[in-house]
Amino acid sequence: MKRNPFNLVWKTLILSLIVIGSTSCSKDNDNDDPKVEVNNELTYKGQTYDLNIGAFNDYGFEDGYSNIEFSIFHLVSESDPIIPVFLYLDLYSTNQDIESGTYRFSDGETDVDGNTFSDSYLVRNYYWQEDKGDEVATIAGGTVKLSRDGENFKFEFNLVTDKNEKIQGSYGGKFEDITGQISAKRIGLPNIKTR
What is the rounded CA–CA span in Å between residue 54 and residue 56? Predict the structure, then answer.
């Protein structure tokens, strides 16, 4: 039986953030600091989920882009085996660092100038100890507004999945820097089994 490499990475992310958490309509210019209203919730398929944890993995500046992976999700408790909702966003900027602005989806085939995001997804009801989830939805379009002050980030997202479902919401606060600890990028998109 082949071992799923995502299983260990995902569990490491969840365990790291549990430890960290227990201790602690006009078009914007891509480089402007957009006004972001924060509600700390996400709506998908008519259901609204609370969001309470944010983390990032910073890859720095290379080949003309800076890149940061963001993880935003809801942790019910340290003992709960289910993460009700998890949003992963992979952002790129032509600046030396990820900065405030509007990020537009790029599929890698269409030229998109300025700030972009790609290879992003949403997981619903993830049973992280079993490496199973009710649904993994690949994001195929939309925009992300980001306002940044150091490690404090505010996100407002208006996304569309490859099944044409909308993901909308916002989250803001101090994000934990997990750079070098874990990376979804090293293994690609998750190979999560559906229940």
Answer: 7
Report helix, strand or coil for 167.
Answer: strand
β strands within the chain, DSSP E? 41-44, 47-50, 53-62, 65-73, 82-93, 101-105, 116-127, 132-149, 152-161, 166-174, 176-177, 193-194
Dihedral through CA 80, CA 20, CA 98, CA 169, nearest 10?
Answer: 30
Token readout for 43 is 């709506």
**Residue partners of 37: CB distance under 8 A and separation at least 6:** 156, 170
Give residue-wise pLDDT tens across range 116-170: 999 899 999 987 777 777 998 999 999 999 999 988 999 999 999 999 999 999 9
pLDDT tens per residue, range 69-92: 999 999 888 788 888 999 999 999
Query: Of 101, 103, 87, whose CA–CA distance to 42 is shortest?
Result: 87
Structure confidence at residue 40 as a pLDDT band (50, 70, 90)? very high
CA 162 to chain centroid, in Å, comes to 16
Strands 166-174 and 41-44, how do they pair? Answer: antiparallel
pTM of the shown model: 0.79
- Tokens at residue 60, please? 């720095």
